[in-house]
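Hi L., both proteins are below.
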Amino acid sequence: MARVAIFEPVQETRELLERLLRRHGHETVTADAALDPADADALVFEAGCASGVALARLLRAARPDVALVACSPVPQPHGVAGLAPLELLVQPFSPAQLGRAVSVALSRPATAATARA
């Protein structure tokens, strides 16, 4: 399947996301400032964390086709404006919703104009 980078500041949550994404058949890597854009097909990131949003912007600038999945405790996080196309997962979400969001983000053309909630 795909190589998915994960940016999540809480270690336990990051480990859970890694396990869930592996169950969906993806390879996972921990995302940080040293992440090479060529190393990931998708990024799952915490939308409420400025560092995660900044990393998503850097990745999108380097690779407009990178799939983005933003996880947020609120339905309309202001930090993700301008990052469309992306999938938005409002917390809490199920393992199935995570898998579906990553699949949809990976299948979406980079030219899509709107983010999906």
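That was the first. Here is the second:
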Amino acid sequence: MTIEAERLIEETGAAVKQIEDLIQQSNAYADEVILSIGEVKQLVERGQLQSDQTRETFDGILRTLENSMDEIQRVEKELDALVKAIGEVGATTSTVAVSAAKTNIVSPNY
């Protein structure tokens, strides 16, 4: 074998070794990417779950507010009715007082 052939064999062997190293490094990077994708997927799933829970919480708050508004409107109607009834009692009391005063004027002996 000539020196030239030996040199080509050595260079070819070195090139094959470099290619093997690059393939191993590429495989290691691919494994890291796959692992990272799995972690990202888990984080996205957790974020989705938290988002769903937050939406449910806000839906509950909204329902509570709606119920409170309904209750406030019901109490407001009841208060309006009470104020009206008190006004009617006051008017009736005034009428009775005027009638009583007239009765006392007409028949002071009773």
